[in-house]
Design goal:
single chain; alpha+beta; Rossmann fold; two-stranded parallel ribbon; two-stranded antiparallel ribbon; 4 helices; about 45% helix; AMP kinase activity; Adenylat/UMP-CMP_kin
């Protein structure tokens, strides 16, 4: 997400005024598992996830048959360290937006269960677009 640090939030404040911030609270283990399951085809940048978007043949790119690799920062130990660092850096950002009354937090582990709530919030804040015929 963005902003990830207080410095980024302050820089963002200088160019626009936010009236809504969404925070997705996903359990640490869920994030670690999902990110650690990511594998990439280096030549094309195609990304696979062994849990919900696996290649047809494990460890092999669907289109070229070339080997997939797991990037160093996607290995479980690195992911855990990244998540801890993010949590520490993001805490003051979350507190800033909470103190302004514009933070809306959603918790869960599945996109299809969280999205309806996010969509309802956004629909209540953003007026619907009218087609040319309706104008």
């Amino acid at each position: 997400g963005f902003p990830r640090t207080l410095g980024q939030a302050q820089a963002l404040d200088r160019i626009c005024e936010l009236d809504l911030v969404i925070s997705l609270n996903i359990p640490f283990e869920t994030l670690k598992d999902r990110l650690s399951a990511r594998w990439v085809h280096p030549a094309s940048g195609r990304v696979y996830n062994m849990d919900f978007n696996p290649p047809h043949v494990q460890g092999v790119d669907d289109l070229t048959g070339e080997p997939l690799v797991q990037q160093e920062d996607d290995k479980p130990e690195a992911v855990a360290a990244r998540l801890r660092k993010y949590k520490d850096a993001a805490k003051p950002v979350i507190e800033l937006y909470k103190s302004r009354g514009i933070l809306h937090s959603f918790s869960g582990t599945e996109t299809n269960k969280i999205w309806p709530y996010v969509c309802t919030l956004l629909s209540s804040k953003i007026p619907p677009l009218l087609s040319d015929e309706e104008n």
